[in-house]
Amino acid sequence: MTKKVPYFQDINAINQSELSDGAVFHELTIQTDDILSISMITIDPASAMPVNQLAGQSINTSIQSALNPAPPASTNGFLVDKNGEVDISVVGKVKVEGLTTYQARELIKSKAAVVYRDPNVQVRYANFRVTVLGEVARPSTYVVPNEKVSVLDALGLAGDLTIFGKRENVLLIRENDGKKEFVRLDLNSSQLFKSPFYYLKQNDVIYVEPNKGKAASLNQARTQTFAIIGTALSVLIVLFSRLK
Length: 244
Fold this sequence. Notes:
By secondary structure, this protein is α+β, with helices and mostly antiparallel strands. It has helices spanning 16-20, 49-67, 101-112, 151-157, 212-243; strands spanning 35-41, 78-79, 85-88, 92-95, 120-125, 129-134, 140-143, 170-176, 179-185, 205-208. It has two domains: 2-24 and 128-210, Roll (Outer membrane lipoprotein wza fold like); 35-125, wza like domain (wza like fold, 2-Layer Sandwich), CATH 3.30.1950.10.
């Protein structure tokens, strides 16, 4: 079993140039029900306070969620409504569905420029979350204040695989257009770096299956428990027989 524990076992057998053409990160596009953290810097800080106050709360929530795996009851930020719009104080409603965070930033900046002088706008996801389950140290749902998250990043947040995790057959569950997509990833192979699933999308689920060693250890623990109970019963029977 120990031979299957190290990651990327073939890394020394390949040329560095073979890994140069690795997985490409594609910027995510904003969808309805996403929650965005939008901050704005203006010449008069007080004028942008309604926007920035909500943005600060959403960033703090994301940081706390990364440090504490328990998902928050609610996430602060600007909700993308069913029309694909966010409603920003003073600026008004802005259609952001289908845009990247960079494109949304430029659009909001152009609209804010009508009200503010030379505004500086930042847009990021406030509810980018991934779930890691199975044989990891800290299985949970993690809210990440960053949209460029890899499989390794998610496993790192979960404290890495346990010794019983099946590294060569990690399951990734992704939803595309309302349909579930199931992909198997091999952490023992450097080909993971070339996989189009190396970078995660919002609401991805990673499941690490237990290996045969986990079942064997459970059976051994169960056998030891039964042995202890049997020994205790034998001692009690002997004691009661002597008392009589």
